[in-house]
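Hi all, long-time lurker, first post. I run a small reading group and we've been trying to get comfortable going from sequence to structure in the token notation. Rather than ask abstract questions, I figured I'd post a concrete chain and ask someone more experienced to write out its structure so we can walk through it together at our next meeting. Sequence below, copied exactly:
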Amino acid sequence: MIAITDHINLDPGELEFSFVRASGPGGQNVNKVSSAVQLRFNAAASPSLPPHVRSRVVTLAGRRANRHGIIVIEAKRFRHQTRNREDALDRLVALIVDASKITRPRRASKPSKTSKKKRLNEKKRRGTVKQLRRGPGDMD
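-- Answer (accepted) --
Happy to help. Here is the structure in token form:
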């Protein structure tokens, strides 16, 4: 089991790794070795995730998730397959941790009377400064 938070553990059987050839540094080795990793995780059907986390993780994944709720994470930062695999897994864990955090909804607030008055006074002051800068022939 992969520990995500205190209450969420992922079953490694839900993760599907595939290895492809990566572009970038590596010389001739890049043409021979499949070091890039594609991690697929079906978040929409995952029994390991609570329902509220399931929907949020797909939303947070954005373009990395398809319409069926499958998240695809590509990792090709490193030259070694094992490090790319760890990187992909770390990124998935970070995504799920972000999705599991419950954010308080923002309550709209009004500006105070004092702040409104201060703003209007500042606008008036700036207007008089600009008016005083005008030359005698600039009257409209």
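A couple of things your group might point at:
The domain at 2-100 is CATH 3.30.160.20 (Double Stranded RNA Binding Domain).
The beta strands are 2-3, 9-10, 15-20, 36-42, 70-75.
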